[in-house]
Hints:
Layout (H helix, E strand, L loop, with lengths): L9 H10 L6 E6 L2 E5 H11 L4 E3 L7 E7 L3 H10 L4 E6 L12 E7 L17 E8 L2 E8 L4 E7 L2 H11 L3 E5 L6 H9 L3 E5 L6 H11 L15 H17 L10 E2 L10 H6 L15 H5 L5 H12 L5 H16 L1 H11 L5 H10 L4 H12 L1 H8 L7 H7 L4 H10 L20 H28 L5 E5 L3 E7 L11 E5 L3 E5 L1 H33 L2 H27 L5 E3 L4 E6 L2 H6 L8 E5 L6 E5 L6 H16 L8 E5 L4 E5 L11 H15 L5 E5 L7 H17 L6 E5 L15 E11 L2 E10 L7 H7 L4 H21 L1 H7 L2 H4 L31 H9 L7 H18 L1
Parallel strand pairs: 1-5, 7-10, 9-12, 10-11, 17-21, 20-24, 20-25, 22-23, 23-24
Antiparallel strand pairs: 1-2, 2-4, 3-4, 5-6, 7-8, 8-9, 13-14, 14-16, 15-16, 18-19, 18-21, 25-26
Helix pairs in contact: 4-5, 6-7, 10-20, 11-20, 12-15, 12-20, 13-20, 14-17, 16-20, 17-19, 18-19, 25-26, 26-27
Amino acid sequence: xxxxxxxxxxMMRQYFEIxxxxxxxxxxxxxxxxYEMFFDDAIRASRELEITLTARNCGLEEKAPLCGVxxxxxDGYIKxxxxxxxxxxxxxxxxxxxxxxxxxxxxxxxxxxPGTITExxxxxxxxxxxxxxxxxxxxSLALAYCDITTGLMKTTQFGSVDKLIDELIKVExxxxxxxxxxxxxxxxxxxxxxxxxxxxxxxxHAFQIHASERIITRILNVFSVESVGFVEPSAMLIASGALLxxxxxxxxxxxxxxxxxxxxxxxxxxxxxxFTRRNLELVETMRTKDKKGSLLWVLDKTCTAMGxxxxxxxxxxxxxxxxxxxxxxxxxxxxxxxLLLRSDLRTHLKQIYDLERLTSKLVYGSINPRDLIALxxxxxxxxxxxxxxxxxxxxxxxxxxxxxxxxxDIYDLIDACVVEEPPYTIKDGGVIKTxxxxxxxxxxxxxxxxxxxxxxxxxxxxxxxxxxTLKVGFNKVFGYYIEISKGxxxxxxxTYIRKQTLANAERFITPELKQLEETVLGAEEKIVRLEQxxxxxLKQNIxxxxxxxxxxxxxxxxxxxxxxxxxxxxxxGFVKPKVTNKDTIQIKNGRHPVIERIFNExxxxxxxxxxxxxxxxxxxxxxxxxxxxxxYLRQVxxxxxxxxxxxxxxxxxxxxxxxxxxxxxxxxSDDLSQGQxxxxxEMNELANILNNATSKSLxxxxxxxxxxSTYDGLSIAWSVVEYLSQHSGIHAKTMFATHYHExxxxxxxxxxxxxxxxxxxxxxxxxxxxxxxxxxxxxxSFGIQVAKLAGVPDPVIERAKQILAKLEINDINNNxxxxxxxxxxxxxxxxxxxxxxxxxxxxSGNGFKAxxxxxxQISEGLYHYLDKLEVEQxxxxxxxxxxxxxxxxxxxxx
Length: 894
């Protein structure tokens, strides 16, 4: 829209001068009690917020499109826009309209984007709200991210885009900034779009080494970036500096609560890729995206918002350092064993508000009187908490106790100044205690006496005039007045000055009443101004202690998370695992932590597990659908993960050898947004496992190859078993649930492969799932019985039985697929060791000459062909081809 600014009214010219600097934002322009939006902003905001679009004169021939929202309800409207990824600039009046000469000064005081929200009403108290930045330097990539409401900031570096994407999925930032001169790859943009992350290009000069060094040293108040941990130029340094520049620009206040950047390496944590996070349902369920039904839902017994955020972060970052794991486990053990200690600590923690976000409100200037009382009440219980753990030295207790500051001086500051039950805002007064400042006491005496004088005037005027209905009142328009009913108004003295006529009364003022009004109201105005000054002074006095409050808040968060582990372990009968560096996972009577809670009225059937690098390296698990294979697989993975976050585990006994990462390939569905079929999704997940697994990994495979033909699927599954079991660089502990019963033949042929099945009890045509894992392979799939359990109509079930019976009788002649499973696949697939050196032996069936034979005989050519086959040296694909040749020749010989 082209606009001749010379024709605009002064106010609209001011609007455009401000708007020109915020073209990518919707500008909320303060006008009295409203925030108003104009032109394109108004059209967009009215559509997104579903509010009325109107217009106003602006000096042009056409009126300016306009919409507005009341200032007292603005948070709700901002939240709606931000949730849609829309960025907002808040433009406030920066001088008192009563004192302004001409147009009131205005300026943007705050920028709100999805990653820079500070208002608690717009945030989930149990989650961090991250804004992130991507940096690049000499071929390396880095991600820096922070929560501006807590001051938490982290950064890490990657060698590939795939690793960056995995970290973005884990962090789930609300917003990501990047250099305007270095566009993000389509792969990264696609993933960000899937995560609904707002993408913001930012000034390129902020992504330079020297610019990053300057802003980091200034905001963190350090001499050099080396003291922060950046010992040399890096992508992490660039990403961190650019992020701080962006946050400072949007906040428009000093970032006093940013005092540390946590530089971390992936070697400190178990690697969990996006597939594993999704399949194990760590923090949300796959289908509904709800917390209920996830592992976090079971473990979260926290008492504070800070603890809830810390717990979630721990669940998503299992440790691999045994010493760190043992510290947490030792702390949890003390808390589990001491019911009184645990109960007392939880009682105290429930009285603590969100110290991290209260601190950020202090920094951003949005803290209100009731927030300060919440801070005071939180501080009140800190000595009690320190007293509970003061003598404990096990695990994390000593560090936590040292980090918790009693903050008694801050408590005294607030207690001396602010009344116990203050109003929500400072603007109307009534916040500061009378004895806090002598002038406050003097002015309040004047107000109190003045109001008493007014009551005395009411009584004396009734007596003097004889009008018993006379009363003295007050409103903000006319101030104090004398009100007389219509019938008695004729008796009003001549000294009364008529001020207002109502339907049933007349209102008057007198010189004496106006003089008292000036005394009372003048004192009240002075009180409000003085209270605002004293409240601002109090905030500044507390501000210098932000670091101490934050350090205490983080210690409380860790204590709360550990208490949550202990409470969960005590309630649900979890046991302390033995965590070692051995390549062994041994679990006695393990249980699935989530399923057990969801179906808590039905006893959960526990199962044992022994995985090692010797005879029990690779589980092949068979059994019917719905029998519990998937539950068992996830159960083992979750128990391992729970142990490595430092919590007790759902088992009778457990020894967990630390794993560097858990891989899962569970189920599959089309990923239409990425243009991928079910089978392609499955193969992508499989490729990720085969390319990245190590001997320290735990691999969970729940069906491989079901998205393609039986031949292809079985061949891939077979090859995967060989590769994971025999590849010199892997030898990972693996659990593989499959419907390909042919794979059970690999036990005894490949070292470490062992068969397990889900036990089933048959009763006529029905089956009962016993949910117990036992040695051996399943000899049938029970597919028809499962279909019956699922409610498939009886005619379909009966017909399926007839077809199955015929196929089982006639499979050699009529069904190659079932012939493969029943009449030779087992023998021709034995060995499974990949060779590729015998391809010349597997000739085409066209090389045979048919011989006449009886019904139970085979031709001489087929006989010689079979005789030459070296089954032990064949790969699955070669075996399939050979079998196909056999069937074709057999048919030709008939």
